[in-house]
Amino acid sequence: MKALLALLLVLSVGASASPRDAEQYFFDQTFGDFTEELQTAREQGKKGILIMFEMEECPFCHRMKTTVLNQPEVQDYYKKHFLIFSVDIEGGIEITDFKGRPTTMKDFAFKQLRVRATPVFQFFDLQGEPIKGGRYTGATKDSEEFMLLGKYIVEQEYLNTSFTRYKREAAKR
């Protein structure tokens, strides 16, 4: 019995933290004014803003939320460096874009950013401009790949190389 308890203790210490709800712990709340969110990001010393473009019936969005975005280490890292919002690409909710113009979620996604598939993770700099190389379409393989994506942006490696090359180099280390 003591051996079984010792084994359980060893296994539980080695296990990672329990998943947390992505809606509550990954995404920030917004009133839909991205000019205000930019100001908040600057004041909080963030590296930028991350928007996940999604739609309700998207299985890949659901998988990201239940296998990657719910991981505490992912949540903690991304919350430290970015304000994070979700935009429904089919949504008719009015928002204010980064330039202060009123629009809908759907028009912001489709007309301004040409989002046609989901999920799309788009990073924006502190001026509200999409970061070149800071767009990832689809679900990542796992939380490690999503963490690499965050580090790629935080470390500004997008200025030097593509994310594909960055991942390849990281795998060699």
Mean pLDDT level: 91
* Order of SSEs: HHHEHHEEEHEEHH
Structural class: alpha+beta
Strand order of the largest sheet: 2-1-5-6
Hey, roughly how much beta strand do the residues contain?
A: 15-25%
Low-confidence stretches: 2-15
Based on CA atoms alone, the radius of gyration comes out at 18 Å
Number of strands: 6
Q: Helicity range of the residues?
A: 40-55%
Measured between the Cα atoms of the first and last residue, the distance is: 42 Å
Shape: globular
**What is the makeup of the main sheet?**
4 strands, mixed
Could you give a quick summary of the protein structure above?
Helix content is 44%, strand content 19%.
Features:
173 residues, alpha+beta, 8 helices, 44% helix, globular, disordered N terminus
Set out the fold topology:
Elements: H1 2-14, H2 22-25, H3 34-43, E1 48-54, H4 59-67, H5 72-81, E2 82-88, E3 94-96, E4 102-104, H6 105-112, E5 120-124, E6 130-137, H7 143-154, H8 163-172
Parallel strand pairs: 1-2
Antiparallel strand pairs: 1-5, 3-4, 5-6
Helix pairs in contact: 5-7, 7-8
Description:
By secondary structure, the protein is α+β, with helices and mostly antiparallel strands. Residues 2-15 have low confidence and may be disordered. The protein is globular, with a radius of gyration of 18 Å. The N and C termini lie far apart (42 Å). A four-stranded mixed sheet has the order 2-1-5-6. A two-stranded antiparallel sheet has the order 3-4. It has eight helices and six strands; from the N terminus they run αααβααβββαββαα.
